[in-house]
Write a structure and sequence with these properties.
The protein is built from eleven helices and 31 strands. It is of the alpha+beta class and about 625 residues long. The chain has a twelve-stranded mixed β-sheet, with helices on both faces. A hairpin with a 7-residue loop joins strand 7 and strand 8.
């Protein structure tokens, strides 16, 4: 024990007085009667005519707020296209209304928990969905303005009305103007988009498994995933007010060109490019095995932000933390909103920046993400099949086979892919951040795809992210979070980890069209027999490859699990001296090794999906 500590203890004992411990800052308490909450709808004019009916579109903002509040209250907002078509949360909740059209059911627990604690909850129907006018534009200006204009209305800067058309004007005198946006998937994506406008009054956002650039949802460095935004627009518009959105959907189809080029439609929906405008703090959550909203989204958004921020990374797929770490998540949200919306100095912004699930239900905190001490390490594939930091030479070839994908590449690559391994590791290696692959590739035809995987070769028990629950199993028992009311209860079924034993784990993936080697904005014809150099990103992650396992790089053509193949699949030859992977590592990678890698087993993850729920 240090001398100063000993002296301090003696002084207390001699004085006979024990100094009281510092009291923790008080948080908001459930002092408001949820049964007396005010429920209403306001239609906010967004200043656009997306459905071409000659009238400015109004979006429906369904509001529930304390009925007895003597002073203005802050707002928690979830803006979504899914309140009538698809549902929210693990139980797919929809909004409901009484016979007069007054909102009754508010999906998710936010209203039940936070309204008694002195918050208003506002659930916004994006333009073209549920009760809002206009048309969905899948992350474009109309989608973003659907929520941004509500923030403006809450701050007295935009008009709101009591009806979808006509109606008397209404203001939000009950609001402090402090807004926090939250949401999973499409909803969290809109939070990102609104934050990137820099709108005043938006104090914090909580994007859960959210998109940061719509290009990267539908494309990957020139490669295409085979689905397009017009299909999603038609899905969310299916139960709107009957407006004709065919013109807007045709514009989406034209803008999302059949190739993987980055064009004007994608630039409008690229929030990362405008991340410097973000003023709001960010509490981010993502599953490192999310094959729907792939993890490049959180990695590039996180890296571009220059605000107070925290991150949770789970082993799940496309899952809300409410369903894998419920108690801790609700507590964190409570303290986060109290701090950023009520101004309570509870220290939530301090402490570890990141919390990462290492094994099912086993979490580790980190002071930073990427992890402190991470080094971008260049690993090179060698003709012997090894992977290390030493220089390499020679060539290697694969034959593109779009009918097979990543699991075949790991377990039985044959001629379809080229595997390289560090061999058995003598110490742990942590991959933390976003890796990238550089290839110098010579195609035998005029079109070619390049895909790459980072793989942890070795046995593990992981969340079964390929299962129907993407890493969770939903039980029948419920826990309740806040107050209930007729038609809107606060109770939700409890989920537990769905665990699977595997012999290898694919920890990062990436895909590219070699024709975009010089530019993502314009593909160029390939000349057979000519070498082309291209660098493309792999998915962001935080994963420890433990001692006794091996880290592998696998390079192939069309990963049939995800991307569309080229017009003329052929043979591709790599110049190994000019091919490498840059991996953000904590730990020392081997220079080169002849130690064999552990044998791979059978594991079949799910392919990416074309919906955003």
């Amino acid at each position: 024990m240090r001398l100063g500590v000993v002296c301090g203890i003696l002084a207390v004992l001699l004085s006979g007085t024990v100094a009281p411990a510092a009291a923790a800052p008080a948080g908001s308490e459930p002092v408001h009667d949820y049964a007396k909450a005010i429920r209403e709808t306001v239609w906010v004019d967004i200043g656009r005519d997306g459905d071409g009916d000659g009238r400015s579109d109004r979006v429906a903002a369904d509001i529930v707020r304390p009925g007895e509040a003597a002073s203005p209250v802050p707002v928690i907002m979830d803006a979504s296209p899914y309140y009538s078509c698809c549902g929210r949360g693990n139980e797919s909740e929809l909004k409901s209304y009484d016979s007069a059209g007054k909102p009754v059911k508010f999906p998710l627990f936010y209203d039940n928990y936070f309204v008694p604690r002195g918050y208003a909850v506002v659930l916004v129907d994006l333009a073209g969905t549920n009760r809002s006018a206009g048309c969905a534009d899948v992350g474009g200006a109309s989608d973003v303005d659907s929520a941004r204009k509500v923030v403006d209305w809450l701050n007295g800067r935009a008009p709101g009305y009591r009806a979808k058309t006509g109606g008397s004007a209404v203001t939000a005198g009950w609001s402090t103007g402090n807004v926090g946006m939250i949401g999973k998937s499409y909803d969290g994506t809109i939070a990102n988009g609104v934050a990137a406008t820099g709108v005043a009054g938006l104090k914090t956002i909580v994007p859960i498994a959210a998109i940061s650039s719509w290009y990267d949802y539908y494309r990957s460095d020139g490669a295409t995933f085979g689905f397009n935004p017009a299909g999603l627009a038609q899905t969310v518009e299916a139960r709107n007010g009957g407006q004709n959105c065919s013109a807007q959907n045709q514009a989406l189809t034209r803008g999302a060109t059949a190739n993987g080029d980055y064009g004007p439609l994608w630039a409008e929906r690229d929030y990362v490019a405008r991340a410097s405008n973000v003023r709001a703090s960010v509490l981010l959550s993502h599953g490192v095995n999310d094959l729907n909203v792939k993890t490049i989204h959180f990695g590039q958004w996180w890296a571009a932000l220059n605000v107070e921020k925290k991150i949770w990374l789970s082993q799940t797929g496309h899952v809300d933390p409410f369903d894998y770490r419920r108690d801790g998540w609700v507590d964190l949200l409570h303290r986060w909103f109290d701090h950023y919306l009520l101004g309570i100095d509870n220290g939530v912004q301090n402490g570890p920046m990141a919390s990462v699930e290492r094994q099912p239900d086993q979490w580790a905190d980190q002071s930073a993400y990427p992890a402190a001490g991470v080094v971008a390490t260049t690993l090179r594939p060698h003709a012997s099949g090894t992977l290390g930091t030493a220089a390499a030479d020679g060539t290697a070839s694969f034959t593109d086979n779009p009918s097979v994908g990543e699991d075949t590449w790991v377990t039985n690559p044959g001629s379809a892919a080229l595997p390289y391994s560090t061999g058995t590791l003598a110490s742990d290696l942590q991959v933390s951040g976003t890796a990238s692959v550089t290839v110098t590739a010579t195609p035998s035809t005029s079109s070619a795809r390049i895909s790459a995987l980072l793989v942890d070769l070795g046995p593990a028990a992981i969340r079964n992210f390929a299962g129907s629950g993407e890493g969770i199993k939903t039980g029948t028992a419920e826990t309740c979070w806040g107050s209930s009311a007729p038609g809107d209860d606060a109770c939700y079924r409890v989920a537990s980890a769905d665990v699977k034993k595997v012999n290898y784990t694919i920890l990062s993936r990436g895909w590219a069209d070699l024709a975009n080697y010089a530019s993502l904005s314009q593909e160029r014809p390939l000349t057979p027999g000519t070498p082309y150099t291209m660098t493309f990103r792999l998915a962001s992650t935080d994963h420890i490859v433990p001692r006794g396992h091996a880290l592998a790089l696998i390079i192939g053509g069309t990963d049939g699990s995800f991307i569309r193949g080229p017009a003329q699949p052929g043979r591709v030859t790599l110049d190994l001296a000019r091919t490498s992977v840059s991996v953000p590592l904590v730990g020392v990678a081997p220079e080169v090794t002849t130690h064999p890698a552990p044998a791979g087993g059978a594991f079949v993850p799910s392919a990416g999906r074309a919906d955003l729920r």
